[in-house]
Protein: histidine kinase
Amino acid sequence: MKIRNRLTLLSSVTFSLVFITAAIIIYVAFYQSSQKRIFDNLQRICLLSAIYYLEKDELPITEHIQIREQYNENIQDVLVGIYNENNQVQYGSHLSFNSITPQILKQVRKDKKIKFESKNHFYFGIFYQDNQGDFVVFVQANDQEFKTQNHQLMVIMAVVLLLGLLVIYLLSFFLSKVAYKPVHDIVKQVNAIEASSLDQTMVNLNTKDELQYLTESYNNLLQRLANTFKMQKNFINYVSHEFKTPLASITGHLEVFGQKERSSAEYHETSQKVLQNVQEIEEILNTLLLVSGLKTETGQKEIFRVDELIWDITDKLANNNQLEAGRLKVVFDIKQESKLTVKGNESEIAIAVYNIVENAIKYSEKSIEIQLLLDQEKVQLKITDSGRGINNEDLEHIKETFFRGSNVGKVQGTGLGLSLAAILLAKNNIDFKITSVENEGTTVTLTFAKL
Structure:
């Protein structure tokens, strides 16, 4: 059963139970109240009848006339029977012998009064002592009007219940339709989303309730799925783009090598070139995995010294024969060692800084300066070169994957270094800014978060 129909049914059943309970309470209260009112009235008539019949010889004529008038006004549809000590009707009408038995008369004399209801009548009796003797006064009233009123009440409540059920069912059905319209819209939007449109988020309902939370959560899920698909797609694109050159080089070497017999030295030279190309492919693969997001550097965020990281990078560049003596100048303007510590994934930050410094060396034939300083209590790393710089148009796209400046000339590169650096630095909450003037140089500023 659909939730909408279940809600409608539940509302109807709940209303029915509440209404039936209320109806029973109302009916019982009305029944008891009406019955009490009838017995109270019969008690008054019973006493009035006793005075009218038994006190006639003791009351003044005028007063007895008033009693008679009251008696005649109240005696309508009521039978009166006054029993003497022999259980004989001495005054009034003879009541049903089936209802007024000697046992009942005896009970009245003992308890002074009694009231009860038979199949079709109400009875009230009192014990009345008079100078003429001791009497039992009984009055009898027909209960037809009482039953009619109760029956009418039951019919009215039954009709109201049926109408109420119909109204509540229709109202619940309508309200559930209104209430579940956002859910229907969500389902419709979800069904419309395909693998090619995962970046298309659902419309925010702005209802400030669980549905809005559900929509936001689903949008977050879609965003993560879209990012995953994008990573996979980017990785495929990156591989097809970057593997062409080293694979073509390997193919070329092997084709040339296989054209004729080669000496041992040529075998060794060719194998070294192929091995170099394979290592290049491996390095590109690792870089592409990081850029695409399919691989992350192992290691948790930790506190480390940024000056030691810089020295490690300069040593690595020197070992790779990428750094000529005297070209790199390192300046530490932070004198307190405690201020040299930062927090982050050291391996990822090392890759990012290495790529930035490597770019500075690659695109500048002049000296390069690495400066470490404090800016508003935040560690700041500046890498400045005096190379060819980047024009304003290229600067807007310089962090994009595979993008290379228009003035790089014949300098070899993949266009991955800065894009990878941007990704890794963003993961570690490091602000990454590039300022450059064409033909004058470039400055990269990294600002670490305060510990």
The mean pLDDT is 81.
